[in-house]
Write a structure and sequence with these properties.
This protein is of the alpha/beta class. It has helices spanning 3-9, 50-61, 103-113, 132-142, 173-178, 215-226, 251-264, 266-269, 272-288, 292-305, 310-319, 325-333; strands spanning 40-46, 69-75, 92-96, 118-121, 127-128, 148-157, 160-164, 170-171, 190-192, 229-240. The longest helix has 17 residues, at 272-288. It is globular and about 60 Å long.
Amino acid sequence: MKTKANAGRFRDTRPAAPGAAPGWAPVPQQTPIPRDWPTVGVVIPTRDRPELLRRTLAAVRAQDYPGRLRVIVVFDQAEPDWRLADDADHPVMVLANWRQPGLAGARNTGIMALDTELVAFCDDDDVWHPSKLRRQVDALVRTPGAEFATCAVEVEFEQQVHPRLAGTDSVTVEQLSRSRMSMLHSSGFLALREALLEDGVIGQVAEDAPGSQNEDWDLLLRAARRHPIVHVDEPLVRVLWGRSSFYAYEYTTKISSLRWMMARHPEISGCRPGAARVYGQLACWSAAAGDRKQAWRWTRETVRNNWREPRAAIALAAIAGAVKVETVLTALHRRGHGI
């Protein structure tokens, strides 16, 4: 799929939206105009979460997308459940991760196995709104030169749901350097498939990211360097937070992946508020891991770059033993936010 060709190939239109699905607000109906829709492949990495995976698959297969849709479930470090394979209207292929173990390798496995024009990611514990793909593809193909799209999310934690919006319809490197923009979740990523191949203009998901963490932020930055990311600022993905995450309390991996990001992307350290945010996270995770020396070090770096950064106060309170980082994290999660 070539970007310039697509800009003329797809007609400008707003197809009909679906009725409301349980748990989602209704979408206004609009008159459809005939259009050739690009083929889309959906990559779902999974590992030992069969019940959540079935829920995710059901939501993906319930998409109202008018074009051809293929789904690939990639089992990472787990025995594949071949019974999930299906050749129905939205075919499901089941694969084992043949690349580097971890989330990044599993995503690359799926991308390489597809032959579609576009590729979308969805984690195995998240759920899509029925119109998610259609509305994202519509926004992507309307934007000349665009190669990557995202959408806002709503966070589910302890049965409470909070929308997370970005307040913009276009995301730049400068915005991503200043903030991770956590509403740009990987389960909302949509891109030209060719751009994410090894020789593609954006490149593959980074398999050298420690613990396959922050590989999504890295991919966003690389995509935004080429062209502002198209963003649909509506919560079209419900993201499940909590202990279902394999990485929730792996502090050493969190620290390593943040340092990897700082070394890989000088834009972050070159943005004082953005650097302070990352240093504040490093301080908090170091304190949570019991490394007071490193926690002090990163707290000083945080204050030096931005004394207003609230993560410095959290780290100091944790260092002093006044509060546990986990307690603060849980309180923030209840409001749909994180450290």
